[in-house]
Amino acid sequence: MKLSGAEILCESLTRLGVREIFGYPGGAILPVYDALGKSKLHHVLVRHEQGATHMADGYARASGGIGVAMATSGPGATNMVTGIATAMLDSSPVVCITGQVSSKVLGSDAFQEIDITGITMPITKHNVVVTKAEDIARTLREAFLIANGGRPGPVLVDITKDAQQASAEFNWEASAPKLPPKRRRNNHDQAEFDRAVEMLNTAKRPIILAGHGIMVSGAMRAFEQFVRAGNYPVAMTLLGIGCFPTDNPLNLGMMGMHGEAWVNNAIQEADLLIAVGMRFDDRVTGDLRTYAKSARKIHIEIDRAEINKNVKVDAALVGDARAVLERLTPHIETRDHSAWIHHITELKGDSAVRDIQSLPDSGHLYAAHVINDLWKETQGEAIIVTDVGQHQMWEAQYYHHNRPRTLITSGGLGTMGFALPAAIGAKFAKPDSEVWVVVGDGGFQMTMSELATIVQEKINIKIAIINNGYLGMVRQWQEFFYDKRYVATPLVAPDFAALANAFGIRGERITKRAEVVPTIRSARESAETVLIDFRVEQEDSVYPMVAAGASLSDMIRRPNNPLVETATEP
Amino acid sequence: MQTLVAYVENKPGVLNRVSSLARRLAINIDSLTVGPTENEEIARMTIVAHTDERGAHRLEASLEKLVDVLLAENISTRALLERDLALIKVSADQQNRPHLMELIKVFRARVVDVAPESLIIEVSGTVDKIDGLLEVLRPFGVLEMARTGRISMTRGGDLLQPPVSESSGSQLESTGSNAK
User: Fold this and answer.
1) ipTM score of the complex?
2) Interchain contact, B175 vs A216, CB within 8 Å
3) What are the start-end ranges of the E strands in B51-162?
4) Global pTM?
5) Among A334, A483, A541, B1, fewest CB within 10 Å belongs to which?
6) B chain contacts of residue A216, beta-carbon cutoff 8 Å
7) For A139-187, how does the pLDDT look when each residue is reduced to its tens digit (9 = 90+)?
8) Residues of chain B with C-beta less than 8 angstroms from the C-beta of A145
9) How far apart are CA B95 and CA B98, in angstroms?
């Protein structure tokens, strides 16, 4: 069957299981759009190509499948860069398809020509230029295989316009992936495995550091069995949230810079760290010289390049988390860590009294109140998509997730503007799930043009803007470390409720704590998108906090009176 | 200094991916040589990098993550044969020429071009040997020099061969069914 390259592309995407494509048309990708119109694929017209990549990313994270974004050459492609990097840093399988000028004029600085494979080389798992129609099907199959294989990541396929227009024989069977052969590595030898088992069975104060890799590997059950076998307390990374139910008493909560104090203290006191599918990010470890000094370390990780990168470990079990955990669990003999768990519970009791939730209602509306109420109202069952900053950390602290892939957030790159478009992608992946955007007034203004996409696609998501009139996390750093010199952090914003109305979206503004629950309820009852502008306390800070580069043991704690903010409190 | 050998796909852009990776990891490359292998689709690289063992591990593992890299191996601690080749143009007049010829003989180098005022000397060997020759030539006036950078091979039965192709897509480990 002879098809044009553009038709081959659409047919291949369909056969690869793609239903939605998030994109924006332009000259060099027009043949594909013409073919798209005749295909069964649904194209979601975004308002900016960065939004397309975040949507594809949100789609991938919510579904576990692959998200597809599309753009034209030149500025269309360069606008994707932030979204691609976001997916790269969080190991999210996104396939980006860009149009490129005709192969005859490649390298001539033609109109809207840019070397997008050169630009995205360090931020993609792989990228490739296709100049022949007959290579399109095979290249796409390879791209999908690479994006979701091993440690996932974004792949960019740049297709010249003449390749889209030329016709070629379409034969799916003959277009099987042909990737270069790889040396098979023996991931870890028996001695390494035995050493890990010995550490597991002799530890007195073990703690698991649970990461995103558990979800990527689909290891939730294997992980739960492993935890149960050893009765291990579990600390989670930001992206690990959801891999293990919060209502399990062994789940301690999040670790790291804004992790719970009892979690960080437990890590510092532990004699064994069992890291699963996480990469010892600096936001997790703090100062490496003082990090978990009395602990031996086991690292279960699929990416060999992560071993001993930041933290030197005593046993590295390289491999897929599920496979490794399933192999380890039968060897666990020691499970009595009651004294240790009792000790952690005591640590926790000390912190809970400092918690803002335990403070009397002073009439002030705190972001933590909003998120805590949202958690209660949705019974922790909603998919929450956050942006980056204070609200993101409060979400991680106060919204208790019990299921995987229900917190979608930009961790590694920390991309402001991620939430709204990523939530749109998540909604397409899980149309029957309730999806909430939790976003700051700063990040929302970066990509709020995607409100139009919501309206055009007639989708139903709920948007909670945690509006404190500042770039809150940066303001917090200025408060703590720059003597309260608030340079470039006070932020003027439009009337978000009125803005929503202008897009044809219902908008609400909330200033009192008593209004939070009724408004959340009424928004949930609506079958359409609702935006709620929560005007929260302006100068609240996220506690506890480990300053960048400080020891995990040195946490800035919430002052007893939250209205008297101070960084000097030990 | 760490020495790595890599087998890579012999196609455009691969050298860029390899060097760009080293740059991203903030590892300075001392020398990088690429040449064909018995299989025309595969090229062999010798990478000499300014880094420690930990950096070399990171580079090795990161290189193997590149789709176009078939194998990367840090061979620094193994028994190695290393060779560097240099062409050195040195000024030579009637007076000092005999003296020069003697030195060249000691270093087992060869004269490959003779001109009235200069000679081109070809020398191969370890980096130390070439550096040694260079040092004694310097007083005569080194006008120009080209060096290939190091190529390395493990000795004896310690083989480092490119993997042979299996069925397509074999390079990716299964991640389990993560859509559940």
Assistant:
1) 0.90
2) yes
3) 69-74, 80-91, 110-114, 118-125, 142-147, 151-154
4) 0.94
5) A483
6) 175, 178
7) 999 999 999 999 999 999 999 999 999 999 999 999 999 999 988 887 7
8) 169, 172
9) 7
